[in-house]
Design goal:
This protein is an alpha+beta fold. It has 4 domains: about 130 residues; about 55 residues, SH3 type barrels (Roll), CATH 2.30.30.60; about 90 residues, 2-Layer Sandwich (GMP Synthetase, Chain A, domain 3), CATH 3.30.300; about 160 residues, Jelly Rolls (Sandwich), CATH 2.60.120. The protein has 15 helices and 16 strands. The strands form 4 sheets. Strands 4-3-2-1-5 form a 5-stranded antiparallel beta sheet. Strands 9-16-11-14 form a 4-stranded antiparallel beta sheet.
Length: about 475
């Protein structure tokens, strides 16, 4: 780009020098239109050559104007000269110099020229009043520092809610690109009258929210903690902004229904609010199901007392059964065996910072997360290294439960957490009357172990004893003495 500008400048200067030398050679003066002998030289030398000097000078003045604006923009970004204003300035510059050339070279009255141009301007202005409105509205928009190229704007246009990235303010139209990369053009005059929400200023972060309705019979503090975990997971996954942190509030209470509002900030220029809303709701539903909270509204058609507060609490077998059925190792169990597991699990309520597992220690149980969050770390060369987070619906310790292998990692609670502890004694009773389940569980453990090893790139950390050539299936049978 710099080379092209240099070539253009050289050609313009060369044109001016050539016109001046030509005038000095053929007319005796470098200022051709002031030569006394111009009338006797004919139209090409006497008129066209001086006229070309005006055109060359206009090109030089136009180049100088654009160059000064470009230099000023580079030195002070906050004083950007609108491109449309420069284009109009170029047009006016050529009009003025062309009028001067007609008056000085062809001896035409400047008053008559201006008068004629005024009448023509009135006619054109009336006929093209929409175009004139768009042009001057475009100038005003470019001078407005509250919006700029690259900003994400929300507005309503002709009854449609629209959102897009501002690409250009041209002579007639404002050019946008929506999230599907479709180009949207809106006349400058119409756009200038719209109410605009600029999502990019004063900060690129804007607050959005997702809502979910639940019955008032639930413990609202518990629900807010569960939904807070959902937005925290979305933030840690990079879906939305961690700073400012997302939060959960009660929006409305009406007809026995509480509307919980999950509020968060995001940069609309990098991700679609619709996509974020979807992810947050998916996490919310996942966490509510893990806690045994039904998301379907119950409509009471009789006059019986409303459901008790503890109906959907994790201490109820139905709530534990709903959560455990989503875990792969237990989803393959027959309904009667799954009910046995749900009835015999131990519910743990742990505070934040509690050390649940220590790498290398023996174990014969696994844990399913119902509420809260766990941090998984291993001992690295430079100290403890976090290798994963466990959220509601996740589980840990299955290898120790089924094979008796030592714990492979440290696990602690990152926030107040509710866990289901599944013990060896429970699974021993199930295997005793249904030993065929051992094969399927061994295959599931093997698949999960390979996936974990691939993700961590630490195949030597496997808790399965490959060195002795013992299979997982054999380890389970020995551990349960099948």
């Amino acid at each position: 780009m710099y080379k092209l500008r240099s070539v253009k400048f050289f050609l313009i200067v060369a044109a001016n020098i050539a016109a001046a030398l030509g005038a000095a050679t053929f007319l005796g003066s470098s200022i051709g239109w002031m030569s006394a002998s111009r009338a006797s030289e004919g139209i090409w030398v006497g008129d066209i050559l001086p006229f070309s000097q005006f055109i060359a000078f206009a090109a030089f003045a136009d180049y100088a104007m654009w160059a000064m604006a470009s230099r000023d923009e580079g030195a002070r970004a906050g004083t950007r000269v609108p491109r449309l204003a420069l284009q109009i300035g170029s047009f006016l510059l050529y009009v003025v110099i062309l009028a001067a050339a007609i008056n000085l070279v062809f001896r035409q009255s400047l008053t008559a020229i201006l008068g004629a141009s005024g009448v023509i301007g009135l006619v054109l202005g009336f006929a093209l009043r929409g175009l004139v409105s768009d042009v001057f509205s475009g100038i005003a928009l470019q001078l407005d520092r509250s919006i700029g190229l690259g900003d994400w704007l929300d507005f309503q246009y002709r009854g449609r809610d629209m959102s897009g990235k501002l690409l250009e303010i041209a002579w007639r139209t404002v050019v946008f690109a929506d999230r599907s990369e479709n180009i949207v053009l809106i006349p400058n005059g119409e756009f200038a009258s719209l109410v605009i929400t600029n999502r990019s200023r004063p900060t690129p972060l804007s607050e959005y929210g997702a809502s979910i309705d639940l019955g008032a019979e639930h413990d609202e503090a518990r629900i807010r903690a569960i939904l807070q975990g959902a937005v925290n997971k979305a933030a840690l996954d990079g879906v939305l902004s961690e700073n400012p942190a997302p939060y959960v509030r009660i929006a409305t209470i009406k007809d026995g229904v509480i509307t919980f509002r999950m509020l968060y900030c995001l940069n609309v220029g990098s991700i679609s609010p619709i996509k974020v809303n979807h992810v947050v709701l998916v996490y919310a539903v996942q966490f509510l199901k893990a806690a045994g909270i039904p998301i379907a509204r119950t409509v009471h058609t009789d006059v019986s007392p409303p459901a008790t507060v503890g109906q959907y609490h994790i201490d109820q077998p139905e709530a534990r059964l709903a959560m455990l059925s989503s875990i792969g190792f237990f989803s393959i169990l027959p309904p009667a065996d799954l009910a046995t597991v749900a009835a015999e699990v131990v519910t743990l309520r742990l505070p934040a910072g509690h050390q649940l597992l220590v790498a290398g220690e023996p174990g014969d149980s696994m844990f399913a997360v119902s509420e809260g969050r766990l941090e998984v770390t291993i001992d690295g060369q430079e100290g403890p290294m976090t290798v994963g987070r466990l959220w509601p619906g996740d589980y840990v310790g299955e290898v120790s439960l089924f094979t008796g292998a030592p714990r492979s990692a440290h696990v602690r609670t990152a926030e107040p957490t509710v866990l289901f502890k599944i013990r060896k004694e429970t699974m021993a009773g199930i295997f005793a009357h249904n030993p065929s389940l051992v094969v399927r569980i061994a295959e599931m453990i093997d698949g999960r172990e390979k996936k974990n090893e691939s993700a961590l790139h630490h195949p030597t950390k496997s808790t399965v004893i490959h060195a002795e050539g013992a299979s997982i299936l054999g380890s389970i049978r020995r551990f349960f003495r099948l």
